[in-house]
Amino acid sequence: MYQIKTFNAIAQAGLDQFTDDYQINESEAPDAYLIRSVNLHEATFPKKLKVIARCGAGFNNVPLDRTTQNGIAVFTTPGSNANAVKELVISLLIASSRNLFTAAAFSAKNSGADISLRTEKEKTQFNGTELAGKTLAVIGVGHVGSLVANAANTLGMKVIGYDPYLSADAAWRISTKIHRANLLEAAISNADYVTIHVPKNEETVGMFDEAIISQMKPGAVLLNYARGGIVDLDAALAALNHHQLTQFLTDFGDDKLLNRDDVVITPHIGGSTGQAESNGAVQGAQTIMNFLETGNVQNSVNLPDIQAPFKTRYRLTLMHKNIPNMVGQIATLLADSGINIENMSNAAKGDTAYTIIDVDHLKEVQETELKSNLAKIPAVYRARLLKKA
What is the pTM of this model? Predict the structure, then answer.
């Protein structure tokens, strides 16, 4: 029986995925955490904890160094909120181009019998522009960016995509009508609107700084619905003050951005829909079950993707440092124990590696001692022994 502990309000659709082999919130020594936004940086992790699945694409609330050192695999649910973010970005493109925010604020302050007449006289100040024929640069064309690009193309916009790490799977999701730029500067130089959809990492923090923003088309609109910190706010504000940008729209608030008519802040609601929360919970639950039952890895942030059919009676999985001779040490220990390896898979992600070993036959004493002996190998974070019923 596997034990699951949840944090935050996890959608029932996700909890319903767990089979009878799982108990939810019935133990303080769980095998898995299913979380959303809870901050785990100061948390003490139970020794039995093997996996954390975060319902969403971000993982800045999880301490990756400590989880890895404790042999805990960390997963996200990429794409689960992609449609929600896409719809919000498209709605903001329309709202900003038609000055809907200022128009609505005007109407809210001017009511009475003469509102229609006053509006007729004064509404020219709210004249906007149509999106059809305008150019949109989509920076990052993964799960969200590809949907935004395709939707904007359907609206009649000319769309330019930029993503130096474009995967084959992502490429299949993008309409052939989307133009691809090889340089960031080339993507943004003639764009009327620029929307950012890249992950937050060392390469993207401050990505839109003064140098990059200065190369945008004068009068352009910038949207950041990826992560806070990707846009240098001081640079964005300077560009607004000098009319290099006409608007900045973001899901990540900061005191610097307050009380400006040319800034629109939404309260981190990109993925805040019932459907997105259900999608993330379902994907998170399925990820946990797949990892606990098969040891296979997909969409982990601290382990490499590695998947192998589980056809034998036993499976060994090891999280360990990515250093020379680790596989050799593991294979030697098994050979010295008289254990024949049927299949072996190994992959690495940065400083961490993951090894899957399938065997058909183990004696009872080997079942008892093998995991403990493997865990004693220096640089092994966690060893698991999975057994089919």
Answer: 0.84
d(CA 244, CA 356): 54
Give me the residues paired with residue 343 across strands: 358
Sign of CA dihedral 305, 308, 313, 316: negative
**Which of 31, 63, 62 is closest to 49 using CA atoms?**
31
Tens digit of each residue's pLDDT (9 = 90 or more) over 218-244: 999 999 999 999 999 999 999 999 999
Q: List the structure tokens of 135.
A: 């150019």
Helical ranges in the chain per DSSP H:
12-15, 64-69, 82-97, 100-109, 115-122, 143-154, 168-173, 184-188, 210-213, 233-241, 274-294, 326-336, 364-375
Domain with CATH 3.40.50.720 in the chain: 1-81+273-302, 83-92+130-265
Greatest CA span in the chain, whole angstroms? 92
Q: What is the pLDDT of residues 124-182, one digit of tens each?
A: 677 889 999 999 999 999 999 999 999 999 999 999 999 988 776 677 778 888 999 99
Distance separating alpha carbons of residues 17 and 11, to the nearest angstrom: 11
Partner residues linked to 332 by β-bridges: none
Token pair of 302 as six digits: 């601290």
Gyration radius of the chain over CA positions? 25
pLDDT tens digit string along 104-123? 887 777 765 555 655 565 66
Name which of 230, 266, 226, 276 is nearest 56 in CA terms: 276
Yes or no: say if 136 and 160 are a contact pair by the CB < 8 Å rule.
Answer: yes
3.40.50.300, 3.30.70.260, 3.30.420.10, 3.40.50.2300: which CATH number matches 304-389?
A: 3.30.70.260
Q: What is the pLDDT of residue 115?
A: 58
Fold of the domain spanning 83-92+130-265: Rossmann fold (3.40.50)
Q: Who's near 63: CB < 8 A, 6+ residues apart?
A: 40, 41, 43
Phi then psi for residue 374, to 5 deg, are -65, -40
**What confidence tens digit (pLDDT) does each residue in 333-351 have?**
999 999 999 999 999 999 9
Q: Which fold has domain 1-81+273-302?
A: Rossmann fold (3.40.50)
Residue 316 is which amino acid? L
Task: Indicate the SS3 state at residue 187.
Answer: helix
